[in-house]
Amino acid sequence: MNWLTNFVRPKIRALYTRKEVPDNLWHKCANCEAMIFHRDLEENLHVCQHCGFHMRLDADKRLKMLFDDDDYHVIELPKVPVDPLRFRDQKRYTDRLKEAQAKSGKNDAIQVAHGRMGGIPTVIAAFDFGFMGGSMGIAVGEGLLAAARLAVLQEAPLVVVPSSGGARMQEGILSLMQMPRSTIAVQMVKEAGLPYIVVLTDPTTGGVTASFAMLGDLHIAEKGAQIGFAGARVIEDTIRETLPEGFQRSEYLMEHGMVDMVVHRKDLRATLVRVLDLLGRPGPSAEIVPLPKPEAEAPAMTAKAAPTEAEPLEAVELEPASPAPAQPQSGETVEPAPNGAAAAVTPGDRPER
Predict the structure, then answer these.
(1) For residue 101, what is the enclosing H or E element?
(2) In the CATH scheme, what is the homologous superfamily, with its name and number, of domain 57-279?
């Protein structure tokens, strides 16, 4: 055995060889480009601790963050036809679906689960932007309908967390038909008298914004989320004007009345629990106390003093009415009197009859 080759050389190589570092230990912020350790990022709910930028979350992390103690059940969604139009661009649509399913481990861009939030039974439908940009196809429409039926069956509020680039172009008109179908799902929940809340995350665009994402009883947006229909560049090219700063961001939309509130991710769960508690109360918790009725005012009287119960009506002296001023007859003149006194009438020359 050569001890130089088998013992000394490996020791020397180990001193000068760099150890491979796993790629998932450090993450780069897309806004400030700061490097963040993965444990710090998870503790901060994937929010940059330097600039406050809210990074995108997949559906699993959304559900774990919102439900009580990670105790929830994901339902199986109805099966839908695969590649109904046999679409192909650079790749076949079926190959794209297989790649997205293998990468994310999900069947499609939506997950529906039921559990409790603050002890309140709740149904949540969360989107995953990592699955083909969270695009809305037939499977997403079926998932929203299944979530609405489950909410009505359990008499629970429905919370939808969209994160999508819009309709899925590979399914053509069938993808656009999911817009009215998702509207029907929202109407089912509202007709049952149940709360429907939308949590707008980055990004929420296209046909998702034009349908169920803007039909909520309450719209809560994360800080800095992009929300709109068409892209900012497309709008600038169309209207040929420069858009204002912060256009299509959640803070801008709240200032213009399209979003009800903008919430930091760390406060999102507490805000949803408080809202669900307020909307889920059947009635006021305190006892209703009737207000005293206002006393009717007595009608005004022209008498000098109003009669009392012990004083008869005959004992009340009424003020004499002021005499009407004398009307001059033919041939008489009226002289004005000072201090508002009655005018004196002096006889004039009367024609003899």
Answers:
(1) helix 93-104
(2) 2-enoyl-CoA Hydratase; Chain A, domain 1 (3.90.226.10)
CA 235, chain centre distance (Å): 24
Half-sphere exposure of 166 (CA within 13 A, CB side): 15
Give the domain ranges of the chain.
Answer: 18-55, 57-279
SS3 332: coil
List pLDDT tens digits, range 213-232.
999 999 999 999 999 999 89
pLDDT at 303 (0 to 100): 47
pTM over 0.90: no
29 is in an annotated binding site: yes
Q: Which long-range contacts (CB under 8 A, 24 or more apart) does 295-301 make?
A: none
The 10s digit of each residue's pLDDT in 177-208 is 999 999 999 999 999 999 999 999 999 999 99
- Predicted local distance difference test score (pLDDT) of residue 1: 54
Token pair in block for residue 175: 């993808």
pLDDT over 60 (residue 317)? no
Tell whether 51 is in a known binding site. yes
Question: Using an 8 Å Cβ cutoff, are 261 and 220 in contact?
Answer: yes
How far is residue 150 from each of residues 49, 110, 189, 252, measured CA to CA in Å? 38, 15, 10, 34
For 220, phi then psi, to 5°, come to -115, 130
